[in-house]
Amino acid sequence: MSRRVSAANEKVNATIEHGTVGRRAAGHPAAGAAARALGRFDSVRFLLVCAAGVLAAVGVAHTAAAGLVDPEIAIGFGALIAVGELARLTMPGNREVAPIGAAAALGYTLLLDMGDVPARHSALQVVAVLTVGMTAGALPHLAVGRPPKLDAMARRLFTGGLLALAYRPLADGLFGLTRGRGEGWWPPLGVMALLIALMVLADVVLAAVLRAERVRAAFRVVLRDELRSAAPLWSAVSASGILLALASHSMGMAALLVFAAPLLVTQVAFRKYAGIRATYLQTVRALARVTEVGGYVEPGHSHRVSRMAVAIGRELGMAEPELLELEYAALMHDIGQLSLRDPIPGGATVLTDRGQARRIAELGAEVIRQTGVLDRVAEAVRRQCDSCAEDPPQASRIIKAANAYDDLVGGSTDRVRAAAALDRIRLGAGDEYDPEIVEAMTRVIGRLVPARRG
Amino acid sequence: MRGLPWFAKVYLGAVIGTAWALIGHSVLVSARLAPLDWSTLLVLALLFLVCESVPTLLNVRQAAVSVSFSAALAAVVLVGPEGAALVGMTAVFSVRPGLPLVKRLFNGAQFAICGFVAGWVYKRLLGGHPVIPSIAGFDDLIVPFAGAAAVFVPLNFVLIAVVLVTTGQAHQVPLRGLAQFLVSYLGYATFGLLIAGLWTTVNSISAVLVLLPLFVARWAFGQYLAQQRAYDATIAALCQAVETKDYYTRGHCTRVSLASGMIAEEIGMGPERLRAIRYAGMLHDVGKLGVPTKVLQKDGPLTEEEYAAIQLHPMRGLEIVRGIDFLDEAFAGIMHHHERQDGKGYPMGLAGDEIPEFARIIAVADAFDSMTSDRSYRGARPVEEAVAELRKGAGTQFDPVMVAAFVRAVDRDGWEPPRKVVPLPADASQTTTKDHDDPTAPIQVVSER
């Protein structure tokens, strides 16, 4: 089967490339925008990477000069950190996480003793082990052409380093407490929990700052999104980290082995969850294109409308779950057209008569309702033609405006055409279109269109 | 209990009786020989109860793998066989509304038996009465613990499997997912060891620390399962939307997905590939939308150009679904589902083994569903006739192995053909007069030269 299939694949590739020429052309200006964004200098991201780099360099240099304290422990934990980095995964919302690595790093940082022998490694040694472990774990990914997200990795290293700097100086005193007769393990446990909480908070805030800068959204909204998505994973990781430090007290190095299995269960669960979430979005995106392949709408229409709708939603401060629903609804807003026997010429729903458009919206909503899980998405699609007076959901109003804009402008990147389309939509503001949304759209287009000319 | 066969009743009675005898024995022995550590026992029993009350459905069908297993094994280490039996017995009181008394009694009994036997094995391997492990003694714990877990799991499995078999639910015994089942038990066993190992340091806090990641994992699995279900429903709904254009082919994608899954299961595909082929079967015809309606519905022979348009539909389908993160095999299945064994199919004209396995499976499922469904130009054929047609085409059009596998599966599980298309469609023009999938009505092409 080998040779003919590969020939077949080549042919398919040719067909597909042919099919996406339109998209490619539309995508090219976006590349220009990315270059400009780089030129504008993503300040926080750059600072973070620099800080992490300096921290790593100092840690490694210091450890190299002073020599490795307790090399066996360092190698054991370093190996687990490397494994964790190797098994990193991408959670919904393009968030790169490495739970096993993070838990191992926490464990190494919090370690008081190994089988009753006090652990004496310094904070800078923790940073060095983190750096070496993470690099080792990232190399195989790099070798197969999957570079890590630099900012995510820098964040992991940076916050881990901060915790080490705060905790390691206390380690000796805390270990002394566990020897004493009184409270024993309770005070160290409290200190661990408190410092971890502070570290997680720092990590979430950093993530939110980075994200707000990247997706151009309000910091407050992004912070809430980050907190929501970080809470389950971080609670598992912190519990495991403390557990690892405590387990090393009674089990010695065996703790590392025993502990790897339970965390694996958590990791597998999250990987599966992230996988299905990604597939879900890809599938909706892919199947939204059937309307284009069938000639019902212009090529790329659904994607452009969904991109625009999500940008408007962000501008209006929508939270992530709502944005996801908005994206689904925008992708599938024309799916009702599949029930038509013949495509509407040009596919421009804004130009067809009202009754027809409503019927298509109803049919589309019916299809989406069949899924049994996307009820709000179905509602957004059903009411996408409603005028402001009928008080449709916000998602419907956004889709209506984004759809109208794309029907008028299409894949064109011409500034004059964009301005004319905006003017025309503004005429209907207050009546057909929500003025607030039209304003938000104007801002979004103002950002996109000049860039497209470059 | 009523309505059960007598041997099931005897079995249930025997298990429950044995368990209570063991408990009685334990209480007597512990009163005489080694006094039980009642406070530890109480904490463990509470922990066990909490875990037992929230059984987690892992990815194995029907097998409620419960976290309580970890607590039971921790009890084996910390309070010995007698204590473990007592802890296991508390399963009777688990908070699971609607669970009948017999099931409760049996659950408690089987946990008690498993706990006692595992505890006995542990004691033997350890060579002394179990005590709360000290820091120095931890390494000596691992082998006896592994032994105890190795006895606990199979015993637990057998006790439950026998119930399922005797009550006529043999098909529910999760033999297929056994490997996965054992791996997850291995994970839970480790949790048990962790709880036991940390008991000296922070006693009951260790349970919280161990269980927190576990509950997060459980939550994530729950989310995953919910998303999975939502995903399956969504993909089915969207595929059906693609089909609404043609009145007669409604439900085709779902049935092809089902039939492809039956064949794949019959030839022993693993769970991941099985899921992939179900999706491939579901999506195999989405590219049909790229074929102009007038060509699909044309009565009479097609011109070469029109035939070329039809031949393109697998590629169009591939083009649509390409961005989805499926197994590559699924794409190959969609791309080549109209290839024939004799090399006369399309789009590439592959023959025999050159055709990807997924495509050979989908081809059989596709043709079979087409034949057993109503078409505007003929009624649905009976299953037997369609099977005969498949057999006739085996070797020329279809892969004989897949045909045989499908026939076996249909003979065993039966096949539910689509409901008769009773009402005549209001808009009669919305039907195809030809079905490109139908092997008994091959497309005729007139040469233009």
UniProtKB/TrEMBL annotation, chain B:
Checking CDD domains in the record gives: HDc
- PROSITE patterns given for it? HD_GYP
Alphabetical UniProt keywords: Membrane, Transmembrane, Transmembrane helix
* SUPFAM superfamilies referenced in this protein's UniProt entry, alphabetically: HD-domain/PDEase-like
Q: Which residues cross the membrane?
A: 6-29, 41-58, 70-93, 105-122, 142-166, 178-199, 205-221
Q: Where is this region: Disordered?
A: 415-449
- Top-rank taxon, per record: Bacteria
* Domain HD-GYP, first and last residues per copy: 227-422
Q: Which InterPro entries match?
A: HD/PDEase_dom, HD_GYP_dom
Q: Which PANTHER family match?
A: CYCLIC DI-GMP PHOSPHODIESTERASE PA4108 (PTHR43155:SF2), CYCLIC DI-GMP PHOSPHODIESTERASE PA4108-RELATED (PTHR43155)
Q: What is this protein called?
A: Chromate transport protein ChrA
Source organism: Streptosporangium sandarakinum
Q: Lineage from the top down?
A: Bacteria, Bacillati, Actinomycetota, Actinomycetes, Streptosporangiales
